[in-house]
Design brief:
single chain; binds uridine 5'-triphosphate; Spore Coat Polysaccharide Biosynthesis Protein SpsA, Chain A; 11 helices; disordered N terminus; alpha/beta
Length: 299
Amino acid sequence: MMSSKKHKVLRKAIFPVAGLGSRFLPATKASPKEMMPVVDKPLIQYAVEEAVSAGITEMIFVTGRAKRAIADHFDKAYELEHQLEKSGKKELLKIAQGVVPKGVSCTYIRQTEALGLGHAVLTAAHLIGDESFAVLLADDLIHGETPALKQMAEQHGFYGSSVIAVQKVSGAGISAYGVISGTKQGAHLYSLNGIVEKPKVEDAPSDMGVTGRYIFSPQIFDHLRALKPGAGGEYQLTDAIQMLLMQEQVLAYQFQGTRYDCGSKIGLLRANIELGLEHPEIGKKLRDFLKNELFQKLQ
Ligand code: UTP
């Protein structure tokens, strides 16, 4: 089923950043996990840049406790800019000023209780209205030639349906994911038949796990409003997707790129090493360190 044309243009993205981030305590006691850096940029900035690459101009952050740092990060830093200007640090000034590209707006809304991802997305419903929108989970960092959301926006532009990102997950790891069953529709595209949250390995309908990028038609809100607490007592986005796909086509797209689960310690470390190796300033030094010092210690 095709949606009307106005639903195909993506202007808005929701960033749910109200989770507790308990796997990173004590780092996340007073500061959100989305502000943790990979090399020199906080996770949330990678996600915003990805949204910008997909043509999105309205960023909506669903925040919780201790989330002021995110609003501060995307705000103008007058004092810092003044200091950098005074000391002639032009490159650093450009970096500080470029955090929010021109024409991009940021809105913050509070999720008063961390009742789950479905609840977080619903909290922003009145800021979306009757148009398609994206949801990005910044703790899933996706690195590749073409940003993952841009790839998905192309599919959405063509088919007009909701599109969720999936990747192949091997072995027992699948039970940490939302898992889809789908009918192959193209090289990297599936039409969804079903979706379950964190199934037992033996019950997983496929090896395709959902990752933190979604494009939804506004009809998802009807199903979010009807949600009852699901797995873990939380309002699960997965349950609303299951209801949506019974009404209209939902696509799953296997994006090109590497995804780092930066909600876990090992994922964040891997991202830092791999993106560090590509970093123009420190890449070579890091490579030398890993090869000449660290590798020998590991022998
Ligand atoms: P996670 O499942 O990673 O939960 O949330 P968490 O609380 O952030 O982290 P841990 O498990 O305690 O370490 C997935 C995404 O959904 C957001 C989180 O911020 C994260 O981006 N989220 C989750 C909300 O915004 N609100 C919620 O109520 C739950």
